[in-house]
Structures are given as structure tokens and as C-alpha cells.
Amino acid sequence: xxxxxxxxxxxxxGGLGLCLVLWRLGARRVTLLDRVAPYLRERPRTSRLxxxxxxxxxxxxxxxxxxxxxxxxxxxLERLGSTSTSIRRRxxxxxxxxxxxxxxxxxxxxxxxxxAGGLFLAVTLGMVRGAPLAPLLLGVALCAVGGAAARxxxxxxxxxxxxxxxxxxLPDVAELLALAVGAGEGPVGALERVAGTxxxxxxxxxxxxxxxxxxxxxxxVALERMASRSxxxxxxxxAEGVxVALERGTPLGDVLRAQAQDARESARRELxxxxxxxxxxxxxxxxxxxxxxxxxxxxxxxxAVLQVGL
Length: 310
Description:
Layout: H1 3-26, H2 32-40, H3 60-65, H4 67-79, H5 84-94, H6 100-128, H7 133-182, H8 187-197, H9 201-214, H10 219-228, H11 233-248, H12 252-309
Helix pairs in contact: 5-7, 6-7, 7-8, 7-12, 8-9, 9-10, 10-11, 11-12
């Protein structure tokens, strides 16, 4: 191994160690509140070592050992722009049972995978091409940050796909509810029938709403919560319209049919808008690829004849 490669490797390891030391010195600053809180908090009657602590990974002992460092990493991710409020909202819109701590653990795992990939590429480039140390360290850091950002973007894409599925399923669900109510079913019975015979993201929200209604929450309040758990305006209007109809005694069948018609009109408008955007996008290859080739084929025979004549 050449001295340059050996020096690059030693410099890489030393730089990473220095970065870790500086990061550790600037992290976990003890505030006055942290110092006073143990004396103001009520002491438990039993040892805290015997208390059950919630875990978000299959390795609870390792998670407790790494808990201080994980909290520092979570605060670092918070500074990058992925706020806890935004993540909680997107997790709610995604419809999964994942908590904020579990998502942060997955985000740290993706960042670790990106860091490992960046280190592998940096060592490979340093040994093969003798690249400078500073760009390699910058690339490693960008790979780690990119892994965390990729997990955040994956959550955003999952939320977008789920909201699109809910918008697509809304007209059919509203029609089925209108048919069930028109056949003599009550609001709860109609929701149970639709939830039992349909599958999809909106059916899952209906089943969750029914579970809240069975637990003692008024059906109108459960429907309002369903509207808050959706980012699609059509689904929100549907749930709020049914809740208002239940509170005011409006005929539910007419409301559901109007909601279904409104959802279909909204889907048709969105389809027309998407078609218009795709039509404009299709003009790009036509103008910049097909049209020049057509003009070239039309002009080339005339140019060839003129050259022969000359």
C-alpha cells in the first residue's frame, strides 16, 4: 500500500474521530431545568429499574444503552427540518401504527446505512484514485444526511399515495352508504355494512371511526376526527357533511348521494387537469425530437439534389 493511501486512511479516521469529539462536546447540554427537575418530581415508591419502559426496537437492552446518543441524534434530525409535529401529522395521515420514536429509529437506521455506503465509496475512491480527504469527508456526511432525508421522503410519498387512494375510493363508498341508508339501515349499520364489504384506505378509516363510536365517542365526533385524519378535501367534506346531517337531522341518503356526486365531479376535474398537464408534457418530445427529424427528412433530398447539381 502506498504512503499516500495510508495517509489518506489515517486522515479519514482521525477526521471522523475529531468530528465525533466535537459533536459530543456540543451535545447534551445540561440546563437548569434538568438539574432542578429530580428534586421537584415525586419520587416513585419502587425502584425505577423495575419499571417497564416502552421500547421501539427488538433489542431493548441495546436501546437503553444507546438512549442518550439516540436522543442527541433525534435532536440533530429535528434541526435538519424534520420536525416532530410534521412527522406526527404525516404518520397520522399514513394510517399506520408507527410512533414518532419508531420512525426516528428507522430514520437513524437509514442514516447509518447511508453513512456505511458513503464510507465504502470514500475508501474505494481514496485507494483507487487518491482523491483528496476533504471532498471524501463531505461526501460521507452527505450520504448520511441523504439516508435520513430519504426516509422522510418515503413517508411523504406513502402519505400522498394513501390520500390519493382515499380520494379514488370516496365516490364508491358514498354510493354504497347511500344505498344502505335508502334500504332502511341506520347510520351505524350502514357504516358497518360498508366497512365489512369493502377494502381499501377509506374502508380502514371507516372501521376506525366505528371502533371509536363503539368505545363511547359520539358518531358525529368520530366522523369529525376522521375528517381531521385526512388531508384530502373531498374526504374531509364527506365526513363533515355526514356529521352535520346526523346532528341536524337532515335526510342522510340525500346528503350521501350529493357527496358522491361532488366527489365524482372533483375526480373528473382532477383527471382533466392531469390530462392537460400530460398533454403539455407530450409536446416536449414532439417539438424537440420528432419535428426536427421530420424537417430534416423533408429538406435533406433537396439539399442533396442541389449539391449534385453544383
